[in-house]
Queue: 4 jobs
Job 1
Amino acid sequence: MKQVLYGFGVAALLVLIGWQWQKNSSTKVENVTVTGPKPAEKVAYVTFDDGPSEITPGILDTLKKYDAKATFFLIGEEITEEREEIVKREIEEGHSVGVHTYCHKKEEMYCNKEYFWNDFEKCKTRIEEVIGKPVSLHRFPWGSNNGYVCPLVDDLMEELQKKKITSFDWNVSGEDSVAVGVPMASIYQNVKKDLDKYDNPIILLHDSNTMKNTAAVLPEILEMIKEKGYRFDTLTSREGYVFPKSWR
């Protein structure tokens, strides 16, 4: 009797398995699209040091033509009454401005911390007088790892953070200020050779009076950046960046 029941159970189990297989094989399976993580957005941060100057309006014209936003680190002494409108235009057209220095004389501003802060506050106050709002961006002249500021930079950075000031160095440079009259082709190639290394490059250029070649080659630089898939933005939308301590 047990053998009969056992045989009946096995047969029933086989029937059930066959029915379940038929059910599954006839069930419609929807196509599922699996997406991986989106690639990082490529944003280029074009920056100009040492203005405003006579060539700055032309640079602003070019930026407007290419719908490119930039950040200008200003020298307080260069913000003369005649150039106030240039600084106002930078803000009106969607660019950002930051403190660079008032005097741009390393033997003065990097003499000690007191001299640095006097220079910083003088420049910051001058900019804010013109634009009518607080300034929150800063760049050390010659970068945060130059030999003059290195003994002071850790303390200065800590105090800048307390003041809610974000400091920026750069990771791509046009090398347009290494000499007077750097050729346009050299400026262009200097930007191009390092640009692809970064999804969010900070590009250093200058807009002081002697930088006519920078202004002239800027359309080609902006075109090249756009062709590589970057969009433009100001540094107000980016976290701070300074050179690694190991570089000092």
Job 2
Amino acid sequence: MKKIYLYIITLFSIATIIILPACSKTSNLINSDSVIQPPVITEDTATIYLAGGCFWGVEGFFQQIPGVLSVESGYANGIGENPSYYDVLGGDREFAETVKITYLPYTVHLEELLLRYFQIIDPLSVNQQGNDIGIQYRTGIYYESEEDLQIIKKIYDYESKRLSSLLAVELEPLKNFYKAEEYHQDYLEKNPKGYCHINLSDAFLPLFPGPDYVKEDSQTLKDRLGKDAYEVVMEGATEPMFSHEYSKEMRRGIYVSAVTGIPLFSSSDKFESGCGWPSFTTPITTDILSYLPDSSLGMTRIEVKDDVYHLGHVFEDGPVERGALRYCINGLSLKFIPEEDLDSWGLSDYKLFIR
């Protein structure tokens, strides 16, 4: 992994960390619509190379995904060196139009990027995507890391099983990659009405069908959750330190919203922080949480919410080797589903996020 330092926002001073509790009441923010971007403090970037037909659309699609730092159009896994677009167009040199994605692995999981990739391709089509035909338009996943290969195979096998078919998507180590000509870079940004075989708005679709949650009135929700949990999710209250069993829960599984049932965190991203509340390094997908500024109690913090429901806060004192963030979440706002029970809960797809 390459190194990069991003300090988007400073949440608190060391003195504040020592003196004040990690999660505190923020009822003044429950109805705020001042949504901000999540913080990023990391040293690590990773790359993956994806061929999905004409690279203009694939590039534009992945540029919209949070945690993706850059997307570069180019030519991969062909014969010879430094091909031009017209060399590739002929097909004789067997290059595939490919995008190089550089991303933050502790902001967006590789699993999510690959699942998004399969959203926009026809994985059964040979040498054709959309109206584009030729070997250069074949699909392929090209990797540099053996660690990535394990994840890629997991998603690859999942898609093959889902479609009950062998896939036409190449799965190979990266042999070579050459950046395409400058006029191909950011093509759809330069040419908003340019050709694109992909619906770019698909980047905002959920990865999997969500639970059938119907919003409840306040009294019904309070009766279902109980008084303490209701005060957490609706009024921004904080449960006492070490009061919830999830602060020590380390079994494999998925943590869903106690209100909506939407998956929020994987056990693979949970760690023992010693703070007294369940702690995670990363949400399960990049589109699942909302972030709001919180200046209560004399601190500058970021509140984390599931839709309109309070979960906790995100801080910058997490494990450095895992992105340095700590999602400090009230156990009362969550429900833990063990891995062996995910099928019966209709959440089997989310096993993909348990490493």
Job 3
Amino acid sequence: MEIQKINKISAINYFGGKYQWLEQLYNFFPEHTHFLDLFCGSMTVTLNKVASSLDTANDLDGSVINFFKVLRECPDNLLQQLQLTPVSRQEYKDCYPIYSEDPIEWARRFFVRCRMSFQGSGLKEHTGFNACVNTTEKGLSKNVSKYLSAVERLPEVIKRLKRIQIESLDYKECVKKYDNNGTFIYVDPPYELRMRNYKKWYNLEFENDNDHIDLRDSLTGIKSMAMVSGYESDFYKDLYKDWEFIKLRPRRHSMKNTKLQEECIWVNYPLVKKTLF
């Protein structure tokens, strides 16, 4: 299958984000009028897809919702603060706890913890600063270059963000509210704990198999088209045994080893070979 490359934008690094998988995911998206990103996280999937008549990004993590709300409503203030923030181990430490009563400072801390950590893992206190020892990019330390580039590209994110409706609902309530024949729901829940090299890096977790079963039950019998992302496992293959199963092309994992990640999707609609980007 020919995979067409796209010019991607990204607001934040986020553990479990689908930045590297976008081209493959979009190739299996069905035609729809309403796109619902049920666990939006970094919002990368919504930001980079072709705009629908209605795009909705949902997440219960207050830091996620506050960041995108501030980015959309107070962009100049946030951008100025981010431009003045040094790429510094001490700054990274000082941005935890992430929460602040000032929404702009809360958003700044969240961005710093996501962008200055390894693989967007900075939501937890124990995760470390991604220091650069001897790698350069654009004549700068690579981590400094990447941080500055991320800040510089935020206006592109803001432009797309203006067309996106942001929700903050429990996923069950969100599915019930927006379930419709013209709706396509993209579902990217926390990975199974047993399938991860690193445990509990999300602020809001699926603690056990029952949480994944509850999600499957919420998607059973809906009018909407739905796609579920996850790692290949016997548990997930059985959970969605009545859905179409697609294994995506693997990419090498960059964390401590070169294990090939078996990223897969399950869909509840007939597959059509059509690229929508």
Job 4
Amino acid sequence: MLSGPLFRKTFKSQLRILVIFAAILAMYMGVEISMFNPDSMDGIKEMMDMLPQQMINAMNLDVGAETSLVGFLGSYFYGFIVIMVPMIFNIIASNNAAAKLVDSGAMACLLSAPNSRTRVIATQAAALILSNILLMAFVTVMGIAVSQALFPGDLDIRAFLLVNAGALLMQLAVSAIGFSASCLFNESRLSLALGGGLPVLFLVLMMLSGVSEDLDVVRYTTLYSLFDPAEIIAGGDTVGLCMAALAAVSVVLYTLGILVFRRKDLPL
């Protein structure tokens, strides 16, 4: 059972940063869609030719490989921006869910009210999960609306929805890493070191794997290897398995975080 007042308070506090990150994603989405040319991708290729090839590879951009709108977005928007921007949001929000409250003493006030540890931390988890759902729902609606306005009928909506579903599952898994770390530690610095450091490390390894073919295997040591927009759009055989794996990571780590928080010593 969740605490309604705590849920509203937590979600309201997250809403400010949620709006900021939603605006950043909306800006990038609008720019990317407006750059699409259904007749020729020469302009994009010329612009990308101005960048070092290592940078293009590190950002997971598949230049010129896709001529469809959904393929274009899969490469230029979902290949890097949708990995990095929500990741930063989740690092901040997941730390705020537990560790920051314990560190500041606010958790003592929450637990002094007639609320069990389980109820408090489950409410925090629910608010974090809802924030991610709303963020990706906004991106999805924004993408469809702008695409229909600029290029009516060009967007493969089914494939686009699947890509966004995969992106949501990936970000829920990232948030679960941060949430479990936030539940494990009583200090924000330690929570951020693990809950923020691990997703950032995954991102760095993903970027390094794109720089050199010799490092390609490194990509598969990261969580982000389970989210491949091009594979989702193509309807690859492993898409369902990858999505199931991301969902499993989220369920396991959120559950583990709640169990750890219930049993650990708190400096109250």
